[in-house]
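Page 37, continued from 36.
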Protein backbone atom coordinates (compact mmCIF):
# COMPACT_ATOMS: atom_id res chain seq x y z
CA UNK A 1 0.00 0.00 0.00
CA UNK A 2 1.53 3.37 -0.94
CA UNK A 3 1.87 6.09 1.63
CA UNK A 4 -0.81 8.77 1.49
CA UNK A 5 1.78 11.55 1.22
CA UNK A 6 5.44 12.00 0.42
CA UNK A 7 6.52 11.80 4.04
CA UNK A 8 10.25 11.61 4.65
CA UNK A 9 9.62 9.01 7.34
CA UNK A 10 8.10 6.70 4.69
CA UNK A 11 11.18 6.78 2.44
CA UNK A 12 13.58 3.81 2.28
CA UNK A 13 17.20 4.06 3.44
CA UNK A 14 20.18 2.13 2.07
CA UNK A 15 22.83 1.36 4.68
CA UNK A 16 26.60 1.33 4.03
CA UNK A 17 26.58 -2.49 3.84
CA UNK A 18 24.16 -2.29 0.90
CA UNK A 19 21.03 -3.40 2.76
CA UNK A 20 17.91 -1.24 2.34
CA UNK A 21 15.33 -0.68 5.08
CA UNK A 22 11.84 0.20 3.90
CA UNK A 23 11.23 3.34 5.98
CA UNK A 24 12.71 5.50 8.72
CA UNK A 25 10.82 4.12 11.71
CA UNK A 26 13.39 2.60 14.08
CA UNK A 27 11.78 0.76 16.99
CA UNK A 28 14.36 1.23 19.72
CA UNK A 29 15.19 -1.35 22.34
CA UNK A 30 13.12 -1.87 25.47
CA UNK A 31 13.51 -4.69 27.95
CA UNK A 32 10.53 -6.91 27.19
CA UNK A 33 11.13 -8.90 30.41
CA UNK A 34 9.54 -11.92 28.73
CA UNK A 35 12.26 -14.53 29.27
CA UNK A 36 12.05 -17.02 32.10
CA UNK A 37 14.83 -18.19 34.37
CA UNK A 38 16.27 -20.15 31.47
CA UNK A 39 16.93 -16.83 29.65
CA UNK A 40 15.27 -18.24 26.53
CA UNK A 41 12.99 -16.37 24.11
CA UNK A 42 9.33 -17.22 24.43
CA UNK A 43 6.09 -17.41 22.50
CA UNK A 44 5.32 -13.94 23.83
CA UNK A 45 8.39 -12.56 22.03
CA UNK A 46 7.08 -14.07 18.81
CA UNK A 47 3.62 -12.51 19.11
CA UNK A 48 4.90 -9.15 20.29
CA UNK A 49 7.34 -8.74 17.41
CA UNK A 50 4.86 -9.97 14.86
CA UNK A 51 2.48 -7.26 16.06
CA UNK A 52 5.18 -4.59 15.77
CA UNK A 53 6.30 -5.81 12.35
CA UNK A 54 2.73 -5.66 11.05
CA UNK A 55 2.53 -2.15 12.52
CA UNK A 56 4.81 -0.89 9.81
CA UNK A 57 8.21 -0.07 11.33
CA UNK A 58 11.23 -0.39 9.06
CA UNK A 59 13.57 -1.70 11.79
CA UNK A 60 12.71 -3.44 15.06
CA UNK A 61 15.53 -3.59 17.60
CA UNK A 62 15.10 -6.20 20.32
CA UNK A 63 15.54 -5.59 24.00
CA UNK A 64 18.85 -6.49 25.60
CA UNK A 65 20.12 -9.93 24.63
CA UNK A 66 22.98 -10.71 26.97
CA UNK A 67 26.05 -12.58 25.78
CA UNK A 68 26.53 -14.42 29.10
CA UNK A 69 23.74 -16.22 30.99
CA UNK A 70 25.48 -15.55 34.31
CA UNK A 71 25.61 -11.79 33.69
CA UNK A 72 22.14 -10.29 33.28
CA UNK A 73 21.20 -6.62 33.42
CA UNK A 74 17.49 -6.88 34.13
CA UNK A 75 14.91 -9.51 35.13
CA UNK A 76 13.57 -11.34 32.11
CA UNK A 77 16.62 -10.80 29.87
CA UNK A 78 17.19 -13.18 26.99
CA UNK A 79 20.77 -14.51 26.92
CA UNK A 80 22.36 -16.21 23.92
CA UNK A 81 25.74 -17.89 24.22
CA UNK A 82 25.14 -21.05 22.19
CA UNK A 83 22.52 -22.59 19.88
CA UNK A 84 20.35 -24.33 22.48
CA UNK A 85 17.43 -21.95 21.75
CA UNK A 86 17.96 -21.73 17.99
CA UNK A 87 14.49 -22.96 17.04
CA UNK A 88 12.70 -20.35 19.15
CA UNK A 89 15.14 -17.69 17.98
CA UNK A 90 14.20 -18.56 14.42
CA UNK A 91 10.51 -18.12 15.22
CA UNK A 92 11.23 -14.79 16.91
CA UNK A 93 13.26 -13.58 13.93
CA UNK A 94 10.63 -14.75 11.43
CA UNK A 95 7.92 -12.87 13.30
CA UNK A 96 10.02 -9.72 13.53
CA UNK A 97 10.90 -9.71 9.84
CA UNK A 98 7.43 -10.23 8.40
CA UNK A 99 5.82 -7.42 6.40
CA UNK A 100 9.23 -6.39 5.06
CA UNK A 101 10.57 -5.29 8.44
CA UNK A 102 14.12 -5.71 9.64
CA UNK A 103 14.63 -7.22 13.08
CA UNK A 104 17.99 -6.50 14.70
CA UNK A 105 19.19 -8.16 17.89
CA UNK A 106 20.62 -5.78 20.48
CA UNK A 107 23.55 -7.54 22.14
CA UNK A 108 24.97 -6.48 25.46
CA UNK A 109 26.91 -7.25 28.64
CA UNK A 110 25.87 -5.41 31.82
CA UNK A 111 29.21 -5.31 33.60
CA UNK A 112 28.74 -3.86 37.08
CA UNK A 113 25.24 -2.63 36.16
CA UNK A 114 23.60 -5.87 37.25
CA UNK A 115 21.46 -5.79 40.40
CA UNK A 116 22.68 -8.03 43.20
CA UNK A 117 19.28 -9.74 43.29
CA UNK A 118 20.05 -11.36 39.95
CA UNK A 119 23.86 -11.29 39.94
CA UNK A 120 25.89 -11.30 43.16
CA UNK A 121 29.18 -11.52 41.23
CA UNK A 122 29.36 -8.84 38.52
CA UNK A 123 32.44 -7.83 36.55
CA UNK A 124 33.64 -4.40 35.50
CA UNK A 125 36.66 -2.70 33.95
CA UNK A 126 37.78 -1.87 37.48
CA UNK A 127 36.91 -3.16 40.94
CA UNK A 128 35.55 -1.08 43.79
CA UNK A 129 32.34 -0.84 45.76
CA UNK A 130 29.75 1.73 44.75
CA UNK A 131 28.82 4.68 46.93
CA UNK A 132 25.57 6.59 46.98
CA UNK A 133 21.91 5.87 47.61
CA UNK A 134 21.66 2.83 45.35
CA UNK A 135 24.93 1.15 46.35
CA UNK A 136 23.15 -1.49 48.41
CA UNK A 137 21.37 -2.79 45.30
CA UNK A 138 24.58 -3.60 43.42
CA UNK A 139 27.28 -6.04 44.46
CA UNK A 140 30.89 -4.82 44.31
CA UNK A 141 32.31 -5.87 40.93
CA UNK A 142 35.49 -7.76 40.24
CA UNK A 143 37.99 -6.34 37.77
CA UNK A 144 38.10 -8.18 34.47
CA UNK A 145 41.37 -9.78 33.48
CA UNK A 146 42.66 -9.29 29.95
CA UNK A 147 41.80 -12.94 29.23
CA UNK A 148 38.23 -12.35 30.42
CA UNK A 149 37.95 -9.24 28.23
CA UNK A 150 39.00 -11.30 25.23
CA UNK A 151 36.41 -13.92 26.14
CA UNK A 152 33.65 -11.30 26.25
CA UNK A 153 34.72 -10.06 22.82
CA UNK A 154 34.40 -13.64 21.62
CA UNK A 155 30.95 -13.87 23.19
CA UNK A 156 29.70 -10.78 21.34
CA UNK A 157 30.90 -12.33 18.09
CA UNK A 158 29.33 -15.71 18.88
CA UNK A 159 25.96 -14.18 19.78
CA UNK A 160 26.02 -12.12 16.57
CA UNK A 161 26.71 -15.21 14.49
CA UNK A 162 23.82 -17.06 16.12
CA UNK A 163 21.53 -14.07 15.51
CA UNK A 164 22.36 -14.16 11.81
CA UNK A 165 21.91 -17.93 11.64
CA UNK A 166 18.50 -17.60 13.32
CA UNK A 167 17.29 -15.12 10.73
CA UNK A 168 17.72 -11.77 12.45
CA UNK A 169 18.67 -9.22 9.83
CA UNK A 170 21.13 -7.15 11.86
CA UNK A 171 22.67 -6.60 15.28
CA UNK A 172 23.08 -3.55 17.49
CA UNK A 173 26.00 -3.43 19.91
CA UNK A 174 24.96 -1.66 23.13
CA UNK A 175 27.72 0.76 24.16
CA UNK A 176 25.55 3.20 26.13
CA UNK A 177 23.49 3.65 29.32
CA UNK A 178 26.17 2.57 31.76
CA UNK A 179 26.51 -1.05 30.60
CA UNK A 180 29.91 -2.73 30.23
CA UNK A 181 31.16 -1.11 27.01
CA UNK A 182 30.10 2.30 28.31
CA UNK A 183 31.92 1.50 31.55
CA UNK A 184 35.12 0.93 29.59
CA UNK A 185 34.64 4.26 27.79
CA UNK A 186 34.06 6.19 31.04
CA UNK A 187 37.16 7.39 32.93
CA UNK A 188 35.06 7.29 36.10
CA UNK A 189 34.35 3.57 35.80
CA UNK A 190 37.55 2.59 34.00
CA UNK A 191 40.62 3.15 36.16
CA UNK A 192 42.77 0.52 34.47
CA UNK A 193 46.44 1.18 33.73
CA UNK A 194 46.89 -1.45 31.00
CA UNK A 195 46.03 -1.28 27.29
CA UNK A 196 42.30 -1.02 28.11
CA UNK A 197 42.54 2.05 30.36
CA UNK A 198 43.90 5.55 30.56
CA UNK A 199 43.74 7.31 27.21
CA UNK A 200 40.52 7.48 25.22
CA UNK A 201 42.04 5.25 22.57
CA UNK A 202 42.73 2.64 25.22
CA UNK A 203 39.30 3.01 26.85
CA UNK A 204 37.66 2.59 23.44
CA UNK A 205 39.78 -0.44 22.56
CA UNK A 206 37.22 -2.90 23.95
CA UNK A 207 34.40 -1.39 21.86
CA UNK A 208 36.51 -1.42 18.70
CA UNK A 209 37.53 -5.03 19.29
CA UNK A 210 33.88 -6.00 19.79
CA UNK A 211 32.85 -4.24 16.57
CA UNK A 212 35.67 -5.88 14.59
CA UNK A 213 34.86 -9.33 15.97
CA UNK A 214 31.15 -8.94 15.28
CA UNK A 215 31.81 -7.78 11.72
CA UNK A 216 34.03 -10.80 11.12
CA UNK A 217 31.33 -13.09 12.50
CA UNK A 218 28.47 -11.73 10.38
CA UNK A 219 30.25 -10.64 7.19
CA UNK A 220 30.32 -7.38 5.23
CA UNK A 221 26.70 -7.41 3.98
CA UNK A 222 24.99 -7.71 7.37
CA UNK A 223 23.93 -4.55 9.25
CA UNK A 224 25.95 -3.77 12.38
CA UNK A 225 24.75 -0.81 14.47
CA UNK A 226 26.16 0.70 17.65
CA UNK A 227 24.17 2.48 20.39
CA UNK A 228 26.44 5.04 22.02
CA UNK A 229 26.10 7.88 24.51
CA UNK A 230 26.42 11.43 23.31
CA UNK A 231 27.93 11.81 26.77
CA UNK A 232 27.51 10.39 30.25
CA UNK A 233 25.60 13.48 31.33
CA UNK A 234 22.22 12.23 32.60
CA UNK A 235 19.34 12.55 30.20
CA UNK A 236 17.60 15.11 32.42
CA UNK A 237 20.70 17.27 32.39
CA UNK A 238 21.08 16.98 28.63
CA UNK A 239 17.56 18.24 28.17
CA UNK A 240 17.43 20.96 30.82
CA UNK A 241 20.80 21.90 32.29
CA UNK A 242 24.50 21.02 32.11
CA UNK A 243 24.67 19.47 35.58
CA UNK A 244 25.83 16.01 34.64
CA UNK A 245 28.60 13.66 35.67
CA UNK A 246 31.90 15.58 35.91
CA UNK A 247 34.77 13.65 34.42
CA UNK A 248 32.60 11.15 32.59
CA UNK A 249 32.63 10.20 28.92
CA UNK A 250 31.88 13.53 27.24
CA UNK A 251 30.71 14.84 23.88
CA UNK A 252 34.19 15.48 22.48
CA UNK A 253 35.19 11.91 23.29
CA UNK A 254 31.93 10.58 21.86
CA UNK A 255 32.51 12.43 18.58
CA UNK A 256 35.98 10.93 18.29
CA UNK A 257 34.64 7.41 18.93
CA UNK A 258 31.79 7.88 16.46
CA UNK A 259 34.21 9.00 13.75
CA UNK A 260 36.33 5.90 14.36
CA UNK A 261 33.24 3.69 14.23
CA UNK A 262 32.31 5.28 10.90
CA UNK A 263 35.80 4.52 9.60
CA UNK A 264 35.33 0.89 10.67
CA UNK A 265 32.22 0.61 8.49
CA UNK A 266 29.49 0.55 11.13
CA UNK A 267 26.11 0.77 9.38
CA UNK A 268 24.22 2.96 11.86
CA UNK A 269 24.95 4.97 15.00
CA UNK A 270 22.09 5.05 17.54
CA UNK A 271 22.56 8.22 19.60
CA UNK A 272 21.52 8.13 23.23
CA UNK A 273 22.97 9.47 26.45
CA UNK A 274 23.36 9.37 30.20
CA UNK A 275 24.00 6.59 32.63
CA UNK A 276 20.40 6.96 33.81
CA UNK A 277 21.48 8.50 37.10
CA UNK A 278 18.51 10.82 36.61
CA UNK A 279 16.39 8.51 34.48
CA UNK A 280 14.02 10.88 32.72
CA UNK A 281 13.44 8.29 30.01
CA UNK A 282 12.11 6.02 32.75
CA UNK A 283 10.23 8.50 34.93
CA UNK A 284 7.52 10.55 33.33
CA UNK A 285 5.04 12.77 35.07
CA UNK A 286 2.62 12.50 32.22
CA UNK A 287 1.90 13.76 28.73
CA UNK A 288 2.50 17.49 29.37
CA UNK A 289 5.98 16.95 30.81
CA UNK A 290 6.75 14.39 28.11
CA UNK A 291 5.86 16.89 25.38
CA UNK A 292 7.72 19.75 27.11
CA UNK A 293 11.01 17.87 26.96
CA UNK A 294 10.77 17.38 23.21
CA UNK A 295 13.22 15.29 21.19
CA UNK A 296 16.38 14.26 23.04
CA UNK A 297 19.98 14.90 21.94
CA UNK A 298 19.16 17.16 19.00
CA UNK A 299 21.98 19.58 19.90
CA UNK A 300 24.53 16.77 19.80
CA UNK A 301 23.06 15.38 16.58
CA UNK A 302 23.42 18.85 15.08
CA UNK A 303 27.08 18.91 16.15
CA UNK A 304 27.96 15.70 14.37
CA UNK A 305 25.94 16.49 11.26
CA UNK A 306 28.30 16.30 8.31
CA UNK A 307 31.16 14.79 10.34
CA UNK A 308 30.30 11.23 9.33
CA UNK A 309 28.46 9.63 6.44
CA UNK A 310 27.13 6.82 8.64
CA UNK A 311 23.34 6.97 9.12
CA UNK A 312 22.22 8.26 12.52
CA UNK A 313 19.25 7.07 14.56
CA UNK A 314 18.06 9.66 17.05
CA UNK A 315 16.06 8.08 19.86
CA UNK A 316 13.87 9.64 22.52
CA UNK A 317 11.05 12.15 22.61
CA UNK A 318 9.51 11.65 19.17
CA UNK A 319 5.77 11.90 19.76
CA UNK A 320 4.37 13.41 16.55
CA UNK A 321 4.78 13.12 12.79
CA UNK A 322 5.75 16.79 12.59
CA UNK A 323 8.70 16.28 14.96
CA UNK A 324 9.81 13.28 12.91
CA UNK A 325 9.59 15.17 9.62
CA UNK A 326 11.45 18.17 11.02
CA UNK A 327 14.31 15.99 12.27
CA UNK A 328 14.63 14.17 8.94
CA UNK A 329 14.38 17.35 6.87
CA UNK A 330 17.11 19.02 8.94
CA UNK A 331 19.45 16.10 8.30
CA UNK A 332 20.35 15.58 11.96
CA UNK A 333 19.07 12.02 11.78
CA UNK A 334 18.25 9.43 9.14
CA UNK A 335 16.17 7.11 11.35
CA UNK A 336 13.47 8.01 13.86
CA UNK A 337 13.99 6.07 17.07
CA UNK A 338 10.78 5.43 18.99
CA UNK A 339 9.96 2.91 21.68
CA UNK A 340 7.24 3.54 24.27
CA UNK A 341 4.79 5.09 21.77
CA UNK A 342 4.90 1.71 19.98
CA UNK A 343 3.77 0.01 23.16
CA UNK A 344 0.63 2.09 23.50
CA UNK A 345 0.09 2.22 19.70
CA UNK A 346 1.84 -0.76 18.05
CA UNK A 347 0.63 0.32 14.58
CA UNK A 348 1.80 3.94 14.86
CA UNK A 349 4.03 3.80 11.73
CA UNK A 350 1.08 2.65 9.60
CA UNK A 351 -1.18 5.28 11.15
CA UNK A 352 1.28 8.02 10.23
CA UNK A 353 2.16 6.76 6.75
CA UNK A 354 -1.25 5.54 5.61
CA UNK A 355 -3.82 6.96 8.00
CA UNK A 356 -2.84 10.62 8.05
CA UNK A 357 -2.25 10.44 11.82
CA UNK A 358 -0.84 13.78 12.94
CA UNK A 359 -1.77 14.03 16.62
CA UNK A 360 0.99 13.50 19.21
CA UNK A 361 1.10 10.20 21.04
CA UNK A 362 0.36 10.87 24.68
CA UNK A 363 2.04 8.59 27.16
CA UNK A 364 0.17 8.06 30.41
CA UNK A 365 1.05 9.34 33.82
CA UNK A 366 1.90 6.13 35.65
CA UNK A 367 0.95 6.29 39.30
CA UNK A 368 -0.07 3.95 42.10
CA UNK A 369 -2.22 6.70 43.56
CA UNK A 370 0.05 6.74 46.62
CA UNK A 371 2.75 9.44 46.51
CA UNK A 372 5.11 7.56 48.82
CA UNK A 373 5.01 4.47 46.59
CA UNK A 374 5.44 6.53 43.43
CA UNK A 375 8.50 8.22 44.93
CA UNK A 376 9.95 4.98 46.30
CA UNK A 377 9.78 3.04 43.04
CA UNK A 378 10.23 5.88 40.55
CA UNK A 379 11.60 4.55 37.28
CA UNK A 380 10.87 0.93 38.21
CA UNK A 381 7.18 1.80 38.35
CA UNK A 382 7.19 3.16 34.80
CA UNK A 383 9.34 0.34 33.45
CA UNK A 384 6.99 -2.17 35.06
CA UNK A 385 3.95 -0.54 33.47
CA UNK A 386 5.42 -0.83 29.98
CA UNK A 387 6.59 -4.39 30.63
CA UNK A 388 3.03 -5.29 31.62
CA UNK A 389 1.71 -3.79 28.38
CA UNK A 390 4.28 -5.68 26.28
CA UNK A 391 3.30 -8.84 28.10
CA UNK A 392 -0.34 -8.20 27.15
CA UNK A 393 0.55 -7.76 23.48
CA UNK A 394 2.69 -10.90 23.67
CA UNK A 395 -0.38 -12.81 24.87
CA UNK A 396 -2.48 -11.54 21.99
CA UNK A 397 -4.24 -8.78 23.92
CA UNK A 398 -4.45 -5.03 23.31
CA UNK A 399 -2.46 -2.53 25.37
CA UNK A 400 -4.63 -0.95 28.03
CA UNK A 401 -3.64 2.59 29.11
CA UNK A 402 -6.25 2.46 31.89
CA UNK A 403 -4.13 0.04 33.90
CA UNK A 404 -2.60 1.77 36.93
CA UNK A 405 0.78 1.68 38.56
CA UNK A 406 -0.23 -0.57 41.45
CA UNK A 407 -1.29 -3.29 39.07
CA UNK A 408 2.02 -2.90 37.23
CA UNK A 409 4.00 -3.40 40.45
CA UNK A 410 1.98 -6.48 41.35
CA UNK A 411 2.56 -7.81 37.85
CA UNK A 412 6.36 -7.61 38.00
CA UNK A 413 6.38 -9.09 41.51
CA UNK A 414 4.45 -12.07 40.21
CA UNK A 415 6.65 -12.40 37.12
CA UNK A 416 10.10 -11.88 38.61
CA UNK A 417 9.86 -11.72 42.41
CA UNK A 418 11.18 -9.00 44.71
CA UNK A 419 14.24 -8.56 42.52
CA UNK A 420 12.10 -6.83 39.93
CA UNK A 421 11.56 -3.90 42.32
CA UNK A 422 15.28 -3.17 42.71
CA UNK A 423 16.67 -0.31 40.61
CA UNK A 424 17.65 -1.56 37.17
CA UNK A 425 20.49 0.93 36.89
CA UNK A 426 23.09 2.46 39.15
CA UNK A 427 22.26 5.86 40.53
CA UNK A 428 25.66 7.33 41.06
CA UNK A 429 29.41 7.20 40.73
CA UNK A 430 30.21 9.29 43.79
Amino acid sequence: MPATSALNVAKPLTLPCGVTVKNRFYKSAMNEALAGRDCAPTEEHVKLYHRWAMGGAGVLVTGNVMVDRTQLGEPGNVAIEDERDLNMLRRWAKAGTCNGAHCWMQINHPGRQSPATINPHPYAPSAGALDGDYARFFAPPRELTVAQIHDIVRRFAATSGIAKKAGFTGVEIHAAHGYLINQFLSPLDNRRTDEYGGSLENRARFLFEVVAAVREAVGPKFPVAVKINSSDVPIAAKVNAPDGVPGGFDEEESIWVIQRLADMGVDLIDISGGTLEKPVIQTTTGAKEDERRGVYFTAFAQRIKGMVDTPIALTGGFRSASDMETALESGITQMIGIARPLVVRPNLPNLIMYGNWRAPVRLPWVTTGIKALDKAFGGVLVISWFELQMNRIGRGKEPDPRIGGMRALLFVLKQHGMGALAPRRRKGHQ
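The longest strand covers residues 102-108. Flag for discussion at group meeting. Residues 8-365 form a domain with the TIM Barrel fold (CATH 3.20.20.70).
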